[in-house]
Write a structure and sequence with these properties.
mainly alpha; 8 helices; 62% helix; 0% strand; elongated
Length: 121
């Protein structure tokens, strides 16, 4: 991806530090995520005059809830309505579940029901 957006002889380490690259690889899973967050990182790096972009800039632009259960479910095509139908509960309870606002026992119960239904968590 970097080769497509940079000058032909530009090395990746001239654009991103090794630690920044490692952090992106650790936290991101899809090509669209890489595209989005590289764009954000390069924009922020340009704004502050930073080259190469370092791990601090990557951490600043990554969404803190990137790998939260709700975000993972949405990436797999499960919205509140689909989860409501799958779990047989009200939308308000699904939203509370995704926000981590249910009692531990109820959270575990819904989690187990999603796994039993084959929903990837």
């Amino acid at each position: 991806m970097l080769a497509q957006v940079s000058a032909s002889k530009t090395k990746p380490e001239a654009l991103l530090t090794e630690a920044a690259t490692a952090l992106l690889c650790e936290r991101l899973a899809t090509p669209l995520q890489f595209e989005l967050y590289l764009d954000r990182a390069f924009t922020e790096g340009f704004r502050v005059g930073q080259k190469p972009v370092d791990v601090d800039t990557i951490e600043a632009v990554l969404s803190p809830n990137l790998n939260a259960m709700g975000a993972r479910l949405m990436r797999n095509g499960y919205n509140v309505k689909q989860l409501t139908d799958t779990l047989g509960v009200k939308p308000r309870e699904v939203r509370s579940f995704l926000a981590g606002q249910l009692a531990a026992e109820r959270t575990q119960e819904l989690h187990d029901r999603l796994l039993a239904a084959g929903v990837p968590l």
